[in-house]
Specification:
Shape: elongated
Order of helices and strands: HEEHEHEEEH
Distance between the termini: 26 Å
Number of strands: 6
CATH topology of the largest domain: Double Stranded RNA Binding Domain
Radius of gyration: 15 Å
Number of helices: 4
Number of domains: 2
Length: 115
Amino acid sequence: MNYKLAKQLKEAGFPQETKQAYVLSSGGKEEHRNIQNMHSGGYINLLSAGYEVVSKPTLEEVIEECGDDLEGIEKMETGGWGAYTYSKKWANSIGVTHLEAVSNLYIKLTRNNKA
């Protein structure tokens, strides 16, 4: 997952309590950091120091947030991965990796729920 997709997830309302994050300094330098113990105030300390912090979730975390709306993930014949749902509103998404496909589906589902 890259910073751009992680930021889109954050903007779509994805929880920001993961162990890994992208950290953007006020100078615009992007870093990947492990934040091992959220209870020690990892995010809060970085935010108070002027950094932008964006969670970098795992596939399992994104699947968990999709919940029952995620009905399938499959390798596509043309390359890449697809994720889809038929519940509530039909939606599908694609990505180079299965994490990208499910993340894109989460973003679509969140937008559909706001509409």
